[in-house]
């Protein structure tokens, strides 16, 4: 009952503001204000306001909203965990199978890829800088700046 009265008062005030706006010859704005001010009366007439008032003061409805919130929280948590793990087991198995199919020659040995069998593989690549070179570069930069 109170909600319907408040909605009616809001609509009446809005229509009054629309009338003043139309008097000032701003008809487009006045029509827009009138449209907005008729919405509360329309909601009262359709029964939406009564339904909302009953829902707002119902403990059962609030418990239902709580249950929906918990369900949403569980859903989002499981999705986040699934993303962190990289998907389901089936998806990971399919990804591994696709990687094997896309590989150039997964079972090829090193000599067949272009290396010769006579040259042994060194444990450290030749292009890797030694520790002394790193420090000499840093020393050169510090000397350049007078440090």
Protein architecture, described:
With 147 residues, the protein is mainly α. The chain has helices at 2-23, 27-46, 48-56, 59-85, 89-102, 131-144. The longest helix is centred in the middle third of the chain and has 27 residues, at 59-85. It is elongated. The protein starts with a helix and ends with a helix. The mean pLDDT is 81.
List the helices and strands and how they pair.
Blueprint lengths: L1 H22 L3 H20 L1 H9 L2 H27 L3 H14 L28 H14 L3
In short:
The chain is mainly alpha-helical. The protein has helices at 2-23, 27-46, 48-56, 59-85, 89-102, 131-144.
Question: Which structural traits does this protein have?
Answer:
147 residues, mainly alpha, 6 helices
Secondary-structure content class: mainly alpha
Which sequence of SSEs, written as H and E, runs from N to C? HHHHHH
Radius of gyration: 37 Å
Q: What is the percent of helical residues?
A: over 70%
Largest sheet: none
- Unreliable spans are none
Proportion in β-strands? under 5%
Count the helices. How many?
Answer: 6
End-to-end separation in angstroms reads 82 Å
Global shape: elongated
What's the average pLDDT? 81
The tally of beta strands, per DSSP, is 0
